[in-house]
Design a protein that fits this description.
Blueprint lengths: L1 H11 L20 E6 L2 E5 L7 E6 L2 E5 L5 H14 L4 E5 L5 H4 L10 E5 H39 L5 H19 L8 E3 L2 E6 L2 E6 L11 E4 L4 E9 L14 H11 L6 E6 L6 H22 L4 H7 L14 H16 L1
Parallel strand pairs: 4-5, 5-6, 6-7, 11-12
Antiparallel strand pairs: 1-2, 2-3, 3-4, 8-9, 9-10, 10-11
Length: about 350
């Protein structure tokens, strides 16, 4: 079922995040973990798709980067922040629009100000609304029906897993009911090139580096701490997801990573993966360079898209998580290169 949904979503240009709908709720209780990056700077992990949420506590309130996969994860993030501070959440910065980073907003307090690049706001309108409708009308109802069928089968087999599946069905149903009452949240503040915030003694630079993972991805740089929050411009230990329908540009992505290597940065927080340092830029860049080279060679040989997705394996990266995204990445680079040839 999940594999079939993945293919359908690729064809429709849907995002990575809704492939599993709101299944994070299956945990039943708050599974999130908080680690300290620096004093008053926290990383929240344990969510579906291993997505990272970053939290900066200042004298004027809390700034959060990204929000989790669904309303439950958003509420859990808020709970974890309250364990660290009684300061209110003032801003949530979206690094891009994909639901694994943005749908958690539906669980945040209603008075939070959301910040994103103008293209991110446009992507929410152009893609997110359709994807949200698909999630409510097709994906979650489909998961619910399959769960019911599975429960019937387990009951006939006297399988003890039936209780676990019944709980999963209950959570899915609750998720669908909740999402039907929700609307996507659009950014209250947008910017074009750079937005600088001063909160207490913290200076935060929200930067648009140009198209990379999508055409609306932002970087959050805290120069006083020598920390950069990358969103999905960096997957560390993972194959990246490249969303060509939302304006990805792998060549510019490579160029951006090159430029960032010269910045005064000591700690790097990726969109997926552990906190790292600038050496991760080179690892990320290497995958993109190899991917582009493989696709170009295949195109020069006259291979069709179908032929190249079957023949290009990217074997050197099989150890990375999300390896299943390689075929869709090949497709993304193929469309990018076709466009630049015109």
């Amino acid at each position: 079922m999940k594999e079939k949904r993945g293919i359908i979503q690729t064809l429709l240009g849907l995002t990575l995040a809704i492939l599993l709908g709101a299944s994070a709720l299956f945990a039943g209780e708050n599974p999130l973990k908080v680690s300290t990056v620096q004093e008053n700077l926290y990383l929240i992990t344990g969510m579906q798709w291993d997505v990272n949420v970053t939290c900066l506590v200042t004298g004027e309130g809390v700034l959060v980067v990204d929000s989790g996969n669904d309303p439950a994860e958003g509420r859990w993030v808020v709970e974890k922040i309250k364990e660290k501070t009684d300061k209110p959440i003032k801003y949530v910065v979206l690094t891009h629009y994909h639901f694994d980073h943005s749908l958690g907003l539906l669980g945040f307090p209603g008075d939070v100000t959301v910040i994103a690049h103008s293209n991110c706001a446009q992507n929410i309108s152009q893609f997110g609304e359709k994807e949200f409708k698909w999630l409510i009308e097709k994906d979650l109802p489909g998961q619910i029906e399959e769960s019911r069928q599975k429960i019937e089968k387990l009951k006939k087999e006297n399988n003890p897993d039936v209780k676990k599946e019944e709980e999963a069905l209950k959570k899915l149903t609750q998720t669908l009911e909740e999402l039907r009452k929700k609307q996507l949240i659009c950014p209250g503040i947008t910017f074009e090139k750079k937005l600088t915030l001063t909160m207490g003694n913290e200076k935060i630079e929200i930067i648009y580096p140009g198209p990379a993972h999508t055409n609306g991805n932002s970087l959050i740089y805290i120069p006083g701490r020598k920390v950069i929050i990358m969103g999905d411009m960096l997957f560390y230990g993972y194959i990246p997801y490249i969303h060509w329908q939302a304006g990805s540009d792998t060549q510019h992505w490579i160029d951006c990573l090159d430029k960032l290597s010269s910045w005064d940065i000591e700690k790097v927080i990726p969109g997926h993966g552990e906190v790292t340092d600038k050496s991760a830029f080179e690892q990320m860049k290497l995958y993109l360079v190899d991917l582009r080279k493989s696709v170009k060679e295949a195109m020069d040989k006259g291979l069709s898209l179908e032929e190249m997705t079957k023949s290009i394996k990217m074997e050197n990266y099989q150890h990375l998580k999300f390896y299943e995204f390689v075929p869709s990445n090949i497709e993304a680079v193929y469309h990018e290169m076709k466009k630049t040839k015109k």
